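User: Please predict the structure of the protein below. I'd like the answer in C-alpha cell form so I can feed it into my own downstream comparison script.

Assistant: Understood. Taking the following sequence of 270 residues as input:
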Amino acid sequence: MSQTTVELESLLMQRSLTDSQLLAAAEAAADFRILPDATVIKIGGQSVIDRGRAAVYPLVDEIVAARKAHQLLIGTGAGTRARHLYSVAAGLNLPAGVLSQLGASVADQNAAMLGQLLAKHGICAVDGAGLSAVPLFLAEVRAVIFSGMPPYKLWTRPAQEGMIPPYRTDAGCFLMAEQFGCKAMVYVKDEDGLFTGNPKTDKHATFIPKISVEEMKAKGLHDSILEFPMLDLLQSARHVRQVQVINGLVPGNLTRALAGEHVGTLITAS
C-alpha cells in the first residue's frame, strides 16, 4: 500500500468528508481506469436519430465495421420528442426532476431502436444493472448501446434558471467515458463541429477546428454545440481531457474519428 493510500485511509477515519487535507489526499490518489481501450460515441437524438433511415442506416454500417478495431460504448440522445415533453411539462409547472425522467424515456426509446437495428450483429442496448455487464459485451461483440440520459431522475440538480434539467445526454455520455476511464469521447451531430454562430441561420459563421473550454466561454460559445454543464465536467475530468464533435451525416467521418483523425472540432479541457 502506497504512502498516499495510507495517508488517505487515516484521514478518512479521522476527518469529515469535506476536510481540505482529506480532499487533497483523495485528489493525489491514483484513479483506476476501468475500460481504457473503449471509446464512447454519442449519437445525437435531434441531429441524427430523428432524421430516420437516411441518417441512421449509414451510421449503423460504420459502427458494425468499426467494432472490429474498436471497443464502442454507444450512447443515444433524446431529441425532438424530449423537447416536446419538456414543453408540455414546463407548461404544467412540473419540476426539473420530473422533466429529467421524461427526457430519459425518449433517450431510452432511441437506445431501444438502435439496439434492434444492431441486434443481428449481437450488439444490444443495456440499462440499469445491465451496465455491470458492459465489459463482457465489449469482450464478446466489442460494442454496446446505452441511453445517454444520466439516471438522476427526481434527484437531478435543478438549473440556476428555468426547469429544464441541466444534465442531459451530452453530459450523461461524457460521464460514462470519464468514470470508465475511456480513451476517447466522440459526439456525432449534424454539423461539422463548432462554429462562431449557428451555421443553419448565420451565413457568416466560421468553423472552429480546435478550442478550449475557457475560450468557448470567453467567446460566448459555451452553450452552442454541447450542453453547458458538460463543459464544466470536461474541465474537472481526470481521464477524458478532450472531446471531438463531428458531422455524422458525412460518410466515413465516424470511422476516421475513431481512428484518431481530427475531422471535426476538438474541445479541450485546458
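That's the full C-alpha cell string. The CA atoms of residues 191 and 247 lie 5 Å apart.
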